[in-house]
Amino acid sequence: MELPAHSPRMALIGSAATQAMSPGLWNPVLRRLGTGWTYEAWDVAPGADMHQVRRRLLEAGVVAANVTMPHKHWAAETADQADAPVQLSGACNLLVPDGDKLVGHNTDITAVGVLLKGRYQRHALMLGAGGAARAALIALRADVGTVSITDRDPRASEELLGLARDLGIEAQAVTSEEARELAPDASLVVNATPVGKSPADGPVWGGAPLAADAVLYDYVYAGHVTASVGRARELGVRCIDGWDHLREQAVAMVPLLGLDPEAGCLLRESLGVLRDTH
């Protein structure tokens, strides 16, 4: 059945949004809450007309939009108002229309803080330097010694390095080869790349042994255990995976959207079902 043009709806904006789990996570929760909202996916390719995307966001009925790769920087720029985490990171994963304006939030940062529990990290290795890495860096800013950053695009590494230094963090940009050499000494390895989405991918840091106190934070979620998580488990390393992150960033949205607090419990339940079926 086709929905009315202005029916309340949430959306996910990304280059592969229709492949993401967010609609499957949110729609059962929205139905159980009786909001009348639906959650849909908008595939928006790199280089698309983002002015048109903004206009669509401001159409009647759109209550919020999550933003994923590669549009988190655009979301931060297009937000008319932004909370402090967005302003600090230059990345935004949630846009909420307010009249003819868009308000930007970053619940990725909240999720990282919740999942890492504010524990001090002596050396964080950032594999990838996009919006997800920025969220991790902001969440860590008061609880990290040094940070090493690598990305396929050296310019992205330099931008994240600049942010780290602006935050007063001791940091360096390294090559991918240097990152693999540094991995065994890191207390936190962050996979902020797509490596792991394919079952054929290997561990993002190369698979060498990790430090006894290491934590792996793998943003990737998939229908299989990523090679990074599988290898880390073999090594006895604590793992936080993309499913954990998906859950906590969604739970952080609940008060921002004015939803019943029960939604947090329902999201955790929905995520469990989704994970079991994938």
Describe the structure.
By secondary structure, the protein is α/β, with parallel strands linked by helices. The protein has two domains: 9-105 and 246-276, Rossmann fold, CATH 3.40.50; 110-240, Rossmann fold (3-Layer(aba) Sandwich), CATH 3.40.50.720. Helices cover 40% and strands 21% of the residues. The chain is built from twelve helices and twelve strands. It has helices at residues 22-33, 50-57, 72-78, 84-89, 107-116, 131-140, 154-166, 176-182, 227-234, 242-251, 253-256, 262-276; strands at residues 9-14, 38-43, 62-67, 81-82, 94-98, 101-105, 121-127, 144-150, 170-173, 188-191, 215-218, 238-240. The strands form two sheets. A six-stranded mixed beta sheet has the order 2-1-3-5-6-4, with helices on both faces. The chain has a six-stranded parallel beta sheet with strand order 9-8-7-10-11-12, sandwiched between helices. Helix 9 links the parallel strand 11 (215-218) and strand 12.
Spatially, the strands of the biggest sheet line up as 2-1-3-5-6-4
Sheet-strand content, in percent, reads 15-25%
Query: Would you state the CATH class of the largest domain?
Result: Alpha Beta
Give the domain tally. 2
Identify the notable features of this structure and list them briefly:
Rossmann fold; alpha/beta; six-stranded mixed beta sheet; 278 residues; globular
